[in-house]
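Please, structure for the following, as tokens.
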Amino acid sequence: MNHKLLKLPFTYLGIPIGANPRKADTWKPIVNQVAKRLSSWKHKTLSLVERVCLLNSVTYSSPLFYMFTFKIPRGVIIEIESMQKCFLWGGVREKKKIG
């Protein structure tokens, strides 16, 4: 038989097995996925209502599978909320304008 040993942590069905869920590094793929889906160019072509709909669909569906398995750390929540606010109000943290 040809068996392969895996070192911890490894990913199974998108969940890191053996990783510490309290560390922000474990949640980095989810944060990166949310950031990728909320790229700054999209906010320029969407109305405020369309932005809210996109925010709800992206930020609630992306980390949901992780959150069924692990408790999300407070720092990750703050980081995702910061990305949401930035996207909703114009995409640039320094400017507080509705585009």
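Helices lie at 24-37, 48-61, 64-69, 74-88. The mean pLDDT is 79.
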